[in-house]
Amino acid sequence: MVVDVTLDPIITQIGPFQLGWHGVFTALAVMTAVWVGWRGAVGRGVPAAALERSITWALVGGVVGARFFHVLDHLPAYLANPLAVLAVWQGGIAVYGAFLGGIAGGLLAAHRARLAPWPLLDAAAPAMLVGQAIGRLGCLANGDAWGAPCGALAPLCLAYGNPHDLLPAALLGVPTHPYPLYEIAADLLLLLALGRARRPGLRPGDTFLAAVVGYAAIRFGLTFFRQEAVVLWGLQEAQVVAAITASLALGVWLLRARQPRGGGDGRLVALAGAPGGQHQENR
């Protein structure tokens, strides 16, 4: 079955500034992810004051990382027009860049607040998956995460027909795999699996590491339904990044599994209300 997508991805435009469905869903994704992450972190005993700083820096890092990776993906075009790097309202983000930048920013803030990282990362894992699932609705609306052309046996294909859609012009009107829908379903299944797998015996950080490996497996497998440049060993860039992140996460998990439990793993190193804690936090 082929579904024609004729929705204009641009809701309105004032001068060079555009309000599009991608931006709307991105904002909704960020707000929902922050809410989910906040509830998860507070439930793990993270002080609210320190959590506010961590989330703020995570958001900043996510935006910078998403844009940075996107620019790297399209470096020749941005070298020809460097000022376009700042035109974020025109779209252009990379999911893995958002993840890595957000984690780096949050961990930097956590380090300054003297918080142990694993509870924060465990809280961030479901937040990132929820945000990603919602954000992919924006990709569905404007075609910027297009799939490869569909075969005759595909149960559902999308044919984009609006000239504002962001997929290559050669694919306009061509039935393609609904990649955003594939990933939304896979993200929600992974989120459900993580929720059902929670039990008292887990180490702090296990949920995050499982989410990293699970999402890497999703991206590696589903990217075969994408149409992007092959960069290494017949693999697309997202698949290479997925393989690296999964390997690193598994390596960290194996190292931690060989260490004895206890010793404050995953606990808060210092609370803002502890003796001297407020002074240290405000340095």
Task: Please tell me about this protein's structure.
It is built from nine helices and six strands, in the order E-E-E-H-H-H-H-H-E-H-H-E-E-H-H. Helix 1 packs antiparallel against helix 5 (117-142). The chain has a domain at 2-148 and 156-190. Strands 1-4 form a two-stranded parallel ribbon. The protein has a two-stranded antiparallel ribbon with strand order 2-3. A two-stranded antiparallel ribbon has the order 5-6. The longest helix is centred in the N-terminal third of the chain and has 26 residues, at 48-73. It is mostly helical and 283 residues long.
Biggest sheet, in brief? Answer: 2 strands, parallel
> Helix proportion of residues, in percent?
55-70%
Structural class designation: mainly alpha
Spell out the helices and strands N to C. EEEHHHHHEHHEEHH
Tally the beta strands.
6
Number of helices: 9
**Order of strands across the main sheet:** 1-4
Measured on Cα atoms, how large is the radius of gyration? Answer: 20 Å
N- to C-terminal distance: 61 Å
Uncertain runs with pLDDT below 50, 5 residues or more? 263-283
- How would the global form be characterised? globular
Strand content: 5-15%
Mean pLDDT: 79
Can you tag this structure with a few keywords?
single chain; 283 residues; mainly alpha; two-stranded parallel sheet; globular; disordered C terminus
